[in-house]
Amino acid sequence: MPIIKILPHAAYCPNGKEIDAPVGTSICEAMLDNGVNIEHACDMSCACTTCHVIIKEGFNSLNEAEEEEEDLLDRAWGLQPQSRLSCQAILSRENVTVEIPKYSINHAKENH
User: Fold this and answer.
1) What are the pLDDT tens digits along the chain (112 aa)?
2) What's domain 3-99's architecture?
3) Where is the 2Fe-2S ferredoxin-type domain (predicted)?
C-alpha cells in the first residue's frame, strides 16, 4: 500500500501527516478518508480546482492527467509543473509527497 506524506498546511493538516491508501485510490479520497478535509467543491467530479495539490515526490507514479484536468489546472492558484487535482491523481504502488497550496480559487472560503 502506498504512503501519502502530506506536508503541513495551516488549515487542513497543521502537523503534516502520513497515510496509507490502496492502489487505485485518488489522493483526494485518501486524504478525506484519513481526516484531512481538503476542499472538493465539485464532489470530485473534475469540475473545479479546489482540491489542487502539488506533488513534491512521486509525480511520475501517478496516472497521467487528462486534458480536462489540465485545462482546469490553468485556473488553479499557485500552479506549478507538478500540480494535480487530487481528485484525479490516482495512486500506484509508489509513495507520494503532497503539498496543499496555501490558497485555493474558492474565494468564498477565504472571505474575499
Assistant:
1) 999 999 999 999 999 999 999 999 999 999 999 999 999 999 999 999 999 999 999 999 999 999 999 999 999 989 999 999 999 999 999 999 999 998 776 644 444 4
2) Roll (3.10)
3) 2-104
